[in-house]
């Protein structure tokens, strides 16, 4: 608090009176001393207060500057975090203004969103705009699946409060189309697997019931039933093994034991395993290996790919030649399995890698096929980061092409 100068005069006047009384000093000299002392003391005190005030102001300015810098850094960090979120996100204040957002083009009608966006004034598609309006007005947690441009989004809204008062809301739109598609595929897979398991089980159950009849004594029929039961059990065994294999391949944690592999040796192993089946149908297995380059892959998995492709080629060929060809082109390593079998119709080519799909259902069941072979092949190729494609002419044969990044 600022001290008035007259107070100093009063103090010095009293002091001078005391001095005059005891020391008999001339009154004019004393008056001069009092005035001078008063002025000097007053100025010294004023200078002290000014210095102190200046120091306090400087400290306050420094504190404000530091606070502003921290706020700027925090805001910058928040913007960085928001920008790194891969889904459209908006922060709405208590007045309904969008004060912060990341990329939102995918939920807008046009490619140029409004500069100033509010919960009412915006360029969002109708479903998004309605959700944002409800989220802001209702001031509560919301979770809803909405469709935006044929893509399914999970829309989430969380109210933002400050000192117990509503300050706006945070809205996020997460693309869940792949998740929903995965769930549909899983349900379809379970349904298909149940159907495939149900058929051989029903056959076995029927035969066992007949064999257990007290009045059944036909030995020839009994032998025929036992052979058929053996076939159905073998088919069940193949189906269960393929299901387990496909389940393991579907895991994102699948570990491949890659190494530099001689493709020629893999082909020889595959030919050795299938030689008897090919000979039974007068089919010739040949190779056309145009490269000696080693393939960096999991040899066990790629051997399984070759076995599946060659088994299919034998299954859908009545005679002729099956050729395995290898070559390199640019940075890619190619392996082809070419047959002279029945070939594929155009409408079948897009379906052959679907689980449980069979080109010739009767022929496949007769040969014990599970309908999962090509699905397994595709899963193995996907795990290797490769591709599988097919070219086919109905009635003339097919060529399955494997492409690796070597």
UniProtKB/TrEMBL annotation:
Catalysed reaction(s) here are:
ATP + protein L-histidine = ADP + protein N-phospho-L-histidine
Which residues belong to any copy of the Histidine kinase domain? 192-406
Q: Which Pfam families match?
A: HATPase_c (PF02518), HisKA (PF00512)
Stored PROSITE patterns: HIS_KIN
Which keywords describe this protein according to UniProt? ATP-binding, Cell membrane, Kinase, Membrane, Nucleotide-binding, Phosphoprotein, Transferase, Transmembrane, Transmembrane helix, Two-component regulatory system
* Location(s) in or outside the cell: Cell membrane; Membrane raft
Give the enzyme class: transferase
Tell me which SUPFAM superfamilies the record gives.
ATPase domain of HSP90 chaperone/DNA topoisomerase II/histidine kinase (SSF55874), Homodimeric domain of signal transducing histidine kinase (SSF47384)
Q: Please tell me one Gene Ontology term that the record gives under cellular component.
A: plasma membrane
Q: Which PANTHER family match?
A: PHOSPHATE REGULON SENSOR PROTEIN PHOR (PTHR45453)
Task: List the protein's name.
Answer: histidine kinase
Species this protein is from: Amedibacterium intestinale
